[in-house]
Amino acid sequence: MLKDCTLEKSGWPEPVSMRVLLSVLYPVLFLIIFGLYPSMTIAPKEGWQVYSSAQDADGRCICTVVAPEQSLCSRDAKSRQLRQLLEKVQNMSQSIEVLNLRTQRDFQYVMKMENQMKGLRTKFRQIEDDRKSVMARNFQELQDKMDELKPLIPVLEQYKMDAALISQFKEEIRNLSAVLTGIQEELGAYDYDELYQRVLRLDNRLRSCMGKLTCGKLMKITGPVTIKTSGTRFGAWMTDPLASTRNNRVWYMDSYTNSKIVREYKTMEDFVVGVVSRTYSLPFKWEGTNHIVYNGSLYYNKYQSNIIVKYSFETGSVLAQRALEFAGFHNMYPYTWGGYSDIDVMADELGMWVVYATNQNAGNVVISQIDPDTLQVLKTWNTEYSKRNAGESFMICGTLYITNSHLSGAKVYYAYSTKTSTYEYIDIPFHNQYFHISMLDYNARERALYAWNNGHQVIFNVTLFHVIKTDDDS
Length: 474
Known about the structure:
This protein is α+β, with helices and mostly antiparallel strands. The protein is 32% helix and 31% strand. The chain starts with a strand and ends in a 9-residue tail after the last strand.
């Protein structure tokens, strides 16, 4: 039996000669073990890596497979094809290594058989010298040794099959090498390190260009993309526009009143499948659906009041609360759908805002910019658009955009610029897929509109007209 790739010595007789068989086996063994692969190790070029290698019993390299590093050009279709082919080559190399070890084992077995055959030759000579005295005893020993040599037959058959398999693998590797060469020529003779550096430079230039984008004007709304279907007809869901790109937490607040439970999800994927990471119980119930999460805190309208509450998710406590002077609440000046949507807290690229209405402004929309830390009103603008005629509203780059309805056929109808204190009537349609919108908020980090669309959580993409600042601009 085999033990650690060597033959156990016990149970084997003294060697005899079989030089004729070895004269046939030696060339075949030499061809398969040493003739098919180069004996020197191939050092990979810069930007390449060794995928696999095989060694003979003396530790000499007989097969080395090198390929480009997997981290380079990982998104390229040709690179994917190249990686698949390299994986196939790697699997073949491992199979060849196994076959080579098996061949080494068989070679040791044959060497042992040679010694036994030499012993047989000695016995034959003894028979010739003194046939009468030793014939009976030697013939019996010869018979025993021939019986012990019978296991060599299946070994030789397996050896022949291994040799054929190695030849087949060699042909497949030759074909794959031709394909890899063609792909390399198709990709060009560029150095992979150089290509990687070029990609990094282009990425830096793109980020620099994005950083020069100033606030833009809303031109188009596309979508929506349905993220999930859950909850009642009314509710709010949001991400933090000031969070890092690695932080993709989602917060979920079902219903527009009589609730204090906020659910948190670590990622958008967890939100889709319903894996809740934390649940918060707010100290006060909320009113409406126009809440936001901003820099790690939740801002919402306290139930049956015109008070805005700032609640920290990190400490689980209220950091600030302040009443909006003269602001209507509890369905005094709601959006067209009702739902205690009198006070709408929102944020954009320029900071935090609150939209509401007052008796002093005849129930028309009032815009106030507030301090996120103290909730103090910094500046206020009075518009001439009736709050009760507004379907929903959102801020982008200091401009308030108001929809004319919360039902099918709704469109962005009115825009008020806080920069110029002027307004205009516009006509930007969007697809109200599920016929009833009870929440519509802009996320400056993702430049998208989050919406609660009749029990569906959806996202609209927005197209902005940008002005690129140059180095000469002040």
